[in-house]
Amino acid sequence: EVQLVQSGAEVKKTGESLKISCKGSGYKFTSYWISWVRQMPGKGLEWMGTIDPSDSYTKYSPSFQGHVTISVDKSITTAYLQWSSLKASDTAIYYCARPYSGSYDLEYWGQGILVTVSS
Amino acid sequence: QSALTQPASVSGSPGQSITISCTGSSSDVGVYNYVAWYQHHPDKAPKLMIYDVSKRPSGVSNRFSGSKSGNTASLSISGLQAEDEADYYCSSYTSSGTYVFGTGTKVTVL
Fold first, then answer.
1. Degrees (nearest 5) of the Cα angle A109, A115, A118?
2. pLDDT of B43 higher than 90
3. Which of A84, B15, B79, B94 could form a Cys-Cys staple with B28, CB 3.0–4.6 A?
4. Does any CB of chain A come closer than 8 Å to the CB of residue B9?
5. Nearest Cα to A66, choosing from A48, A47, A80?
């Protein structure tokens, strides 16, 4: 069974750093890109970026380029999303997702991580 | 890149059919067949309902169907049921090698 299991909810202060994770299992991890998706409170889904676990090549949405870093450790089949300095506007639910075989469309999703940033 | 445009809300009575539109551009919906639709219930992960414009993943009801014409994609739901009440998002691959979601549509079953 394909699963993406994300780390737990986070409560942080503005200016702090954060790294959240997404562990894939039940499939060949290096064969499928992992994307990250944001949902701010009361808002829609936003695609943030994606990574190829086989070589760590990344592609970011222009809206998120330079604000977050996506990385992967294929030895433990885990992808990461990190911030060096959080802002209150980073408060959101963050999902990781894996595409359908042969497509770019996102079939498997993690359960989501609520990140709350306050001053 | 701008979000794809969807109506904010669509409603229908049980048993009726509804259609949700998703308008993009010649840089995304108009040139790629990687158009998908997701159902999103509050406090749950989004669920892929349609991929590659009109294909249904295993387990998704055949009451859901997708199509595309030019820069506009559509999701149709027939035989509307109470459980269909949710937010729906379209998405598309883009010529920049990125991915973009629609603005989202709240479906209400009257």
1. 165
2. no
3. B94
4. no
5. A48
What distance in Å separates residue B101's CA from the closest CA in chain A? 6
Strands A113-118 and B47-50: unpaired
State whether residue B34 sits within 8 Å of chain A by CB.
yes
Q: Are A86 and A16 in contact (CB under 8 A)?
A: yes
Q: What is the pLDDT of residues B55-103, one digit of tens each?
A: 999 999 999 999 999 999 999 999 999 999 999 999 999 999 999 999 9
Q: How many CB atoms lie within 10 A of CB B14?
A: 11
Mapped onto helix, strand or coil, the DSSP state of residue A28 is coil
In which order are the strands placed within the sheet that holds A69-73?
Answer: A3-6, A18-25, A78-83, A69-73
Q: What is the pLDDT of residue B1?
A: 75
- Comparing CA positions, the residue from A109, A96, A6 lying closest to residue B38 is A109
Residue B100 tokens read as 């973009």
Burial class (CB in 10 A: 0-12, 13-18, 19+), A78: buried
Distance separating alpha carbons of residues A5 and A96, to the nearest angstrom: 9
Q: Which residue has tokens 């009257």?
A: B110
Q: Which of A1, A5, A101, A106 to mutate to test the interface with B (most CBs of B within 10 A)?
A: A106
Question: Rounded CA gap, B56 and B3, in Å?
Answer: 23
Shortest distance, CA A36 to any CA of chain B (angstroms): 11
**Beta strands at A10-13 and A113-118: parallel, antiparallel or unpaired:** parallel
Averaged pLDDT, A71-86: 98
